[in-house]
Amino acid sequence: MISEKLYNLPANHLNVTPNHHKMHLKKKFIKEKIDILLISLESLDLYSFDYISRLDTKTFQDISNIFTIRKCNLLRDIETNAKCCFECSLLLISIIHQIVTRTHIHQNITYILHDYCHNNQKSHITSTSYATKQYLNRFKYKYQKIYRYYQDKSNSIQGKQLYNIAVANLYILHLTCSKEGLYILYKYIYISPFLISL
What we know:
Elements: H1 2-8, H2 11-14, H3 18-44, H4 57-71, H5 86-100, H6 103-120, H7 130-146, H8 159-175, H9 181-191
Helix pairs in contact: 3-5, 3-7, 3-8, 5-9, 6-8, 7-8
């Protein structure tokens, strides 16, 4: 009955056009990229977001709203996240860039990338430094906790796949430290068709 009624409605009433669907997917794609980069930052330094409280009041309120959205999984749920708009995404990109370009964060990124690449050739994750193991394990834990639908598959998913995702996102953050870093970050999030995820 209900399906017949819906079937007889004009197409524009259902608000499902090919363009609407594409836009919906693009927003989801963008937000997932931002989310995974934030997971990477949080895994790198648990206190990396502390300096946000020192920003001006309006920016701090905007960021607080964004993190409230993230905690409620609204960043991952397009249907319910009206608050997480283009401006918020740009603000998050700017914040990611500011955090990454801080000296100790950048040094940690460079160290972990170098350590992982050097030891990955030997195919022994156990031979990596404590800092690298800590980053990889935090990333794996946070990623699996946030994307719960991977929990069921986690036994079949090799830990190495998650580690590669962690390192690939760390490499993107590393590129963000260059002179064109903000542009690279924007280009990856908004233009690149690639999502480094499972």
